[in-house]
Amino acid sequence: MDRRSFLRFGGMAVSTLALAPRTWAEDMHAMHMAPADNTALLPVADFPAGRALPALQKLKNQANPAGQFQATLTAAARTVQFKPGLDTVVWAYNGQNPGPLIEVYEGDVLEIRLINQLTQPTTIHWHGLPVPPAQDGNPGDEVAPGTERIYRFSLPAGSAGTYWYHPHPHGHTAEQAYMGLAGPLIVRSRRDPLMGMPEQHLVLSDLKLGADGRIAGNSDMDWMNGREGQFVLVNGVLQPTITANGMQRWRLWNMCNARYLNLSLGEQPFRLVGTDGGLLEHARTVTQLLLAPGERAEIVVMGNGEIALQALAYDRGMMGDVPAPQTLTLARVALSGGATMPMPSHLRQITPLTPGGVQKRVVFSEQMSMAGGVHSMTPLINGKSYDMNRVDLISQRGAVEAWSLVNDSDMDHPFHLHGTQFQVVSRTHNGQTVPEPFLAWRDTVNLRPNETVLIHVVQPQAGARMFHCHILEHEDRGMMGILNVV
Ligand code: C2O
Ligand code: CU
Ligand code: CU
């Protein structure tokens, strides 16, 4: 008798009931139901909501000379109370969730000391920045518990944009990120055309919190689909209120392990002015903006009235018995003042990359198995699982290449490449090729099921670079490869 029919007929006879618990337990065992699947989650109503959006705390520069940025990030556990009276252990950089905002300028030289006070190895990866491979926190280049190291790199001209930093240790990236280790990084330009426009920063992160106050571990379903908790936090708080008087430039980070954020301000249009790697050439008026895990954007918001910032329901093809995608309210926004300054018609020049003839193909796929009654999915790139000791692709430094990113699976996967920013050229879906309508610098691009995205890309520095799915559970489960730049 399976579990469902037991529950249906369990009341029929005392003798059946007496036998039932053992039968059920055996049944559960046979089905290999992971106990983590059944972790009771904290009811959403128990979580305080509605406070004013807290500003991100900045990482203080300890260096005096101009153009130098020196600071320390200490990764350690700490106890917080999301719900008053209920202790939650999180992992944090310098005791902050999200991690402190690193704010630097093009041309700056950074020296960031990482002190690892966790009980597992970690690294810091500088997501989106052209950092030398030895300074980029690659898997395998780990900082052991109780030890430290310094990451040193400089920021080239033209790198102004919205980036982030997070751990990248082999097999533990998802866990360290969902425990709270991730922070924003802004590279500024001294000739920013939007200089003078007030800014707000919205770091969007996912939280799966148990009723016992513990951050829940990943269930088998989380490993398969990518983890989504019951909360999406903005700068670490639930459904804050945001006040915008006049035009504002918002920087948005999707730091969720797996959650897609199809952002909307209801009827109120807004301007998309920047992507991962900085400003576009021209502002684009939009009413929706899909941010896949890992992606960032810059928008200009203006208007009048009380509206909601929402993540509209987005079907990313999750497998198994999961609830239908839902629309979430991320924040309440009070807009006033309307347009208070002219939008520059031209934001910056982006020169299209011209490929030299080298082509590459990167195919994301999923291998399903029912071995031993366990429903499992192995995510693969070009038919293989990540191997730290294998080089998957080789590129020449400085050579512009054309990469076809193919999603040969039934689920969305966000492709991410280290060490550079690329340009999306076209997207092909159901036999229809749509040229990308505008030039933009990106380091992460979503691949829908059966979609092929063509990018042009060049790597400025030699060494080993990762490319992977930015659903961090998929990355940890092997949806990652190594590009050796020679
Ligand atoms: Cu944000 Cu390799 O990752
Ligand atoms: Cu990265
Ligand atoms: Cu994936």
From TrEMBL:
InterPro entries: Cu-oxidase-like_N, Cu-oxidase_C, Cu-oxidase_fam, Cu_oxidase_Cu_BS, Cupredoxin. It is found in: Cell outer membrane. The keyword Metal-binding applies. This is Bilirubin oxidase. Transmembrane segments: none annotated. It is a lipid-anchor. It is an enzyme of class 1 (oxidoreductase). Its main location: membrane. It comes from Silvimonas terrae. GO terms for cellular component: cell outer membrane. Gene3D superfamilies: Cupredoxins - blue copper proteins. SUPFAM superfamilies: Cupredoxins (SSF49503). The keyword Iron-sulfur does not apply. Its EC number is 1.3.3.5. PANTHER family: MULTI-COPPER OXIDASE, MULTICOPPER OXIDASE LPR1. One of its GO terms (molecular function) is bilirubin oxidase activity. Residues 78-191, 375-484 form the Plastocyanin-like domain. Pfam families: Cu-oxidase_2 (PF07731), Cu-oxidase_3 (PF07732).
